[in-house]
Design goal:
434 Repressor (Amino-terminal Domain); globular; 102 residues; homodimer
């Protein structure tokens, strides 16, 4: 079973690491307990909508960007897409036809 | 404050109505209490990841489609997009350039 909280946790952690921030910094800014944020990142706790809004704000990332990334990753898990961030092969072929000839 | 559960509720209800199903039908197929599903749809209760997976399955809608629609609607609420289906997905990234710098 695909669990949304697992993907939300992964995405929150990836954004945090991308920004070079520690759990402690983000938890402090978001006013959530460090242990709780850690559990959310590991997909062990559901983040309430209020917590999610606070953490997104602390990360300076729009909630929409988090949810879309979650949707993209779940699409891969559901087998609806092979790569979430890569241009499909047939699209690349269509715009660069010579690429497929070599 | 933008609450994800409100958007999730709206999206679940819209998909249900689009499919012409009643609350009772979906709640029964997903094995969740009718009153609980009703509260989720109205944004009054957070749906756990397990409930969300069951309801998505009962609606025959991929979870990724639900989460992407939630992301699109929140982008509009965040003022990142005027129309969710018109502006390219990378628009949000383009106006948050600092994300890729850290």
């Amino acid at each position: 079973m695909i669990l949304v909280r697992q993907e939300i946790g992964d995405v929150l952690r990836d954004f945090r690491l991308q920004k070079g921030r520690t759990l402690r910094q983000v938890a402090g800014k978001a006013s959530v307990a460090l242990g709780y944020l850690s559990e959310v990142e590991r997909g062990q706790k559901e983040a309430s909508s209020e917590i999610l809004a606070s953490v997104a704000d602390a990360l300076d990332v729009p909630i929409s960007m988090i949810m879309r990334e979650v949707g993209d990753r779940i699409a891969v898990l559901e087998g609806l897409e092979v790569f979430s961030d890569v241009v499909p092969d047939d699209f690349a072929t269509a715009i660069e036809p010579e690429l497929s000839l070599h």
